[in-house]
């Protein structure tokens, strides 16, 4: 992601420029009229499903990952692409999977962060993650060295991004993993930016002796980059309000969950009166799903020099955030390619000034909230390149020319907890034909034989666990409301995603239960994980 190697030598830059004529002709998708510059947009890689991290730090090479666990290397000079590695012990669904990568070419190291599960595919899954350093032998990744292991995980906010600083320190962002009450606890790993030596040891100059914690108070940081003067910037997903860009400082407290964005609410001012809290450089409400972050250091595209480039998913755009000379303020924001290519997950700057970005249109979010994405492209995910045209280059006729968007489009309400409608007829029919015989008309089950489905957290609690139970069935003891039952239940994996969603939504809103609905996308993700 050009995260660590802004200090690449002029020799390498000259080498890159000398090879430009040898580059294959990638399909041109359009152009950006950007001040006095014309920028070409071309498609570099297609037929992907949820690329998560791209890294263009190595001249004429593009490293990228897919959330399913594959690591790829593209030779930009020849167009040759190969899958160099596949992680086999990860779990990939919803926001699990291969979530962070950094390449360190000085020693041919690749750093990866991914989720895995104890009891994978079983009803009670324990989600964990690990940070691993590999060596690249020219063909594949070898010699794994685990730097952090068995990091607690959750169904969401597992992070993450990785960046290597010029002084050979690894910075690693980790989301709050759903345990928000512990985020501001220095002894809890979640909601933090961590700093390690490249062998996994703790630097002696970290703010807390013996701890990897560098800064705290983050919700879900999916962007991390080093700018000039070794300044570290991070993006962070807000909840309903306040997506953020932060200047990450040693020992800094960024407030989550006590402070959301700027300190402008009574509760936030009270907390900040007793704690030192660092406000973001910029915050967005409604949220735009601020994701991958890159720094543009060069005048190759003069209008973007000394800017942060931000990929946004719900905002479906690239944001150019112009910094002041010292890098501690954002002076202005420009929006490009809004709703053109869909959700943009990550962005990276190559040594020659070219910019690479990847889409994330095939991930779980559009299936869960389709009302947010009426203009989402239907094809596979892909990686694209933005480069400036030289004076003697001509435009391809008929290709669109995009300009800076005059304003952000109006983002629809992100309502995860929409109410259940009165119409539960389909779910009731499915209950009658599949569940009534055992669990009865009131959901009470049978004492000592069939567990109840009324007033139990098995029904109203973890939706993923409930879905896995329906898909896999039960063939052993189960503890419900403090009592053990040992009656077999068949799997209902023959039902469609919609049928299971209708059935479980009915159960979660009958028999004294009151819980939000299950949607087919949630069933799809759990089924995908079990079958993988």
Helical amount: 10-25%
From the N-terminal CA to the C-terminal CA, the straight-line distance is 29 Å
Average pLDDT over all residues: 90
- Going across the major beta sheet, what is the strand order? 23-24-25-2-1-26
The poorly predicted ranges are 1-22
Strand content: 25-35%
Task: List the total number of helices.
Answer: 9
User: How large is the radius of gyration?
Assistant: 24 Å
Largest sheet: 6 strands, mixed
Q: What structural class do you assign from the helix and strand content?
A: alpha+beta
Number of strands: 28
Shape: globular
Main attributes?
single chain, 532 residues, alpha+beta, 6-stranded mixed beta sheet, 28 strands, globular, disordered N terminus
Please tell me about this protein's structure.
Strands 23-24-25-2-1-26 form a six-stranded mixed sheet, with no helix packed on it. Helix 4 packs across helix 8 and helix 7 crosses helix 9. The chain contains nine helices and 28 strands. The two termini are 29 Å apart.
Please give the structural blueprint.
Elements: H1 10-18, E1 28-34, E2 37-48, E3 51-55, E4 61-66, E5 70-75, E6 81-86, E7 98-104, E8 109-118, E9 126-136, E10 141-152, E11 162-164, E12 169-174, E13 192-197, E14 213-216, E15 223-226, E16 232-236, E17 243-248, H2 266-274, E18 282-284, E19 290-296, E20 307-312, E21 317-323, E22 330-336, E23 344-349, E24 355-359, H3 365-368, E25 381-388, E26 401-402, H4 425-434, H5 436-439, H6 457-460, H7 463-472, E27 478-480, E28 483-485, H8 497-507, H9 520-531
Parallel strand pairs: 1-26
Antiparallel strand pairs: 1-2, 2-25, 3-4, 4-5, 5-6, 7-8, 8-9, 9-10, 11-12, 12-13, 13-14, 15-16, 16-17, 17-18, 19-20, 20-21, 21-22, 23-24, 24-25, 27-28
